[in-house]
TrEMBL record:
Keywords assigned: Oxidoreductase
Keyword Transport (UniProt): no
Stored Pfam families: DAO (PF01266)
Entry's Gene Ontology molecular function annotations: oxidoreductase activity
InterPro entries per the UniProt record, alphabetical: FAD-dep_OxRdtase (IPR006076), FAD/NAD-bd_sf (IPR036188)
Membrane-spanning parts: none
Name of the protein this chain belongs to: FAD dependent oxidoreductase domain-containing protein
Lineage: superkingdom: Bacteria
Amino acid sequence: MAVLVVGAGIVGASVAYHAARAGAEVTLVDAGRPGAGVTADSFAWIAASRVRSGPASAVRAAATVEYRRVEAELPGLPVAWSGALSWRPGAAPEPGPGQHIVDALTLEPNLRRSPDWALWTPGEGAVDPVGVTERLVAGAREHGARVHLDTGVTAVRRDAAGRAAGVETPSGPLAATTVVLAAGVATAALGASVGVPVPVEPSPCPLFGLRAPAGLVRTVVNTEDFDLRQVAGDRLIAAADSARRTVDAVRATFRGEVDLLDTRIGVRPMPADGEPIVGPVAEVPGLYVAVMHAAVTLAPAMGRLIAREVVDGVAQPALAGCRPDRF
């Protein structure tokens, strides 16, 4: 089985790693460097409990278990198991599995005041998204994968029978028996090259870098104003809508000097219905699509499940609601 994965973001890297580990002959191709696209501009919270319904809910619920599995397989995976703390105005929600209502000050002592309630999910954490992607690519290489970086893919190739047969690049064609499109928003154009519509659009996601005292924030904090976590001794990142409002909200929430350092806009691949598009394309045998939002959360689980389908030919019930033919 010769599997060619287009896209070395965190999803494509996970597919390449799991497929190579399963014994496939894997080629991974990307126009840039591992994780250098939208993966690098992710808040990177392993938010396993944030969405409890929908076709990918079971995959999401397994996210922390899957990350710990990959962490054991690939020592040095940059994951911080800090736990996640959420609160909102109004009544406290019913805690889900592995969650507790707590006094937020016991976990975040630098808060100016304690909210009326806080939902604590100790099993969650966050990752260095580029570091995880690089480690997955290195793991794929350790299992024999060939990696072509700085190599753009212009189209999917088909053979005389109409099957996917590889891809076209400026350096020439690359052959494969199965092509997995995991190229984020570029997946739509690559699908169009063989007449396959992939309903995914770019969704801007602002990410703000903040200067802050060391240890100001100890968990992943999720409020109505921002998602926030500490990524270095003197640096926070926040996912929110407005830089000015975010800085003001963080200053009002935490004790300590906080200043804006930079603003980045990630372009998330957002499927038309918000749910992952994962599975084989009936119109083009040998073509498989893997594009999704919440890619950092879902990547380890999706990589394993996709490899089972692509390499072993075993349909995975957890992906039944994510198929491309639903559109």
